[in-house]
Design brief:
The protein is built from 16 helices and 13 strands. The chain is α/β, with parallel strands linked by helices and 372 residues long. The strands form 2 sheets. It has an 8-stranded mixed sheet, sandwiched between helices. The chain has a 5-stranded mixed sheet with strand order 10-9-11-12-13, sandwiched between helices.
């Protein structure tokens, strides 16, 4: 565990409903203050931290005077809308006390399934991190019911880790970590210190939901670790009330259960690109752009485009070819093919005049480009 967390530069921290709301008794100001203090300290160390926080529905129930979780979806969505106000206010005030800016980001799984919205969300989050602002993310429960009906924000935390290419996902929960069986029912259950994310044996170990407030349980955390590992992020599942848990993890201390990613971050991304057998289109570049990509590791700028082939949308994986027609790279397009044709051979200063808006300076950013 020491190397994984100590070396992590970009961390996604997910906290569950029972922790955030102190088992439904209302927002736990002391606990949120503790996490915000640690996040501020990690930011001062030069690390990027993103918070994925449950608790909106539980807080909304408390504010509305509901003692039991309603079954009607529209009532759950109403509770989420009410509770989200207090949740984001609490994080904002606690981070602001430490001179750290914060931003509310509400996402749905559909946002991360659609390639264009995926890129928009990614660009926003990376911009916030660059500005040293802490994104506080929650499921947009007022317009979707996936989380309400089936899961928890564990999956969302994993998707965010994939989205921003995090080094680690830390899931803070009301359990010490993963056991080989439910320790409340099996006295022989052993604690799992470390395992490989995606190991099928982990899923058989994990039980059902452990709280009446959340709808996750250990199984969603194990599956979230499996998903996060696809982009090379390792996951730690730990007790959220462990003193200075985030800071101690960042020093390399072994706390909770570590589920390691078997694929390195860069290798995972290359493999994902390589798996696209049917590309939507391609761009042909000049020799100058070719040299910058191949020799200098630069992004592909529209000014280096010679031709645009096929019809593709923003976020599609496209090929990058030399003048001789040889594929030299592939990556995620920041512009649709129709837009690319307009800005080919043009500097970024002319984008607004040609497109009617100012987008990214790159046709394909180097982070989203893999050399063949």
């Amino acid at each position: 565990m020491s190397d994984v967390l100590r070396a992590a530069k970009r961390i996604v921290v997910k906290v569950g409903s029972s922790l955030v709301t102190n088992e439904g008794r209302g927002l736990d100001e002391e606990a949120i203050d503790t996490w915000c203090r640690q996040i501020a300290a990690l930011t001062e160390q030069g690390r990027d931290v993103v918070m994925v926080s449950s608790g909106a529905i539980a807080e909304g129930m408390k504010r509305l005077g509901w003692r039991t979780r309603p079954k009607e979806v529209h009532e759950l969505q109403a509770a989420a809308a009410v509770g989200q106000m207090g949740l984001v206010q609490m994080y904002e005030s606690k981070l602001r006390e430490r001179g750290i800016g914060s931003a509310q980001v509400l996402l749905t799984h559909a946002d991360l399934a659609d390639r264009e919205r995926y890129l928009n969300a990614r660009s926003t989050l990376l911009t916030l991190l660059r500005l040293r602002v802490i994104p506080v993310i929650n499921e947009n429960d007022t317009v979707v019911n996936d989380e309400i009906k089936f899961g928890d924000n564990d999956t969302l935390g994993a998707l965010v880790a994939n989205l921003i290419e995090a080094d680690a996902l830390v899931i803070l929960t009301d359990q010490a970590g993963l056991f080989s069986a439910d320790p409340r029912k099996d006295a022989t259950a052993r604690f799992v210190d470390e395992a490989r994310a995606g190991d099928p044996a982990l899923e058989s170990m994990a039980g059902g939901a452990g709280s009446s407030l959340g709808r996750g349980g250990m199984i969603t955390k194990v599956l979230a670790a499996k998903r996060a590992s696809r982009s090379g992020a390792s996951t730690v599942i730990a007790w959220g009330r462990e003193p200075d848990v985030l800071l101690r993890l960042a020093t390399g201390e072994a706390i909770g259960t570590l589920l390691t990613a078997s694929t390195a971050k860069i290798a995972a991304r290359k493999q994902w690109m390589a798996d696209h057998l049917q590309l939507r289109g391609a761009v042909v570049i000049d020799d100058g752009a070719l040299a910058k990509l191949r020799d200098d590791g630069k992004s592909l700028l529209p000014i280096g485009l010679v031709a645009v082939h096929g019809e593709f949308a923003r976020g599609d994986v496209i090929a990058v070819r030399s003048g001789a027609g040889v594929e030299i790279a592939r990556g995620l397009a920041n512009y649709a093919s129709s837009e690319a044709r307009l800005i080919a051979r043009k500097p970024s200063s002319e984008f607004e005049r040609l497109l009617g808006f100012t987008g990214e300076a790159e046709m394909i950013h180097r982070d989203n480009l893999v050399l063949s």
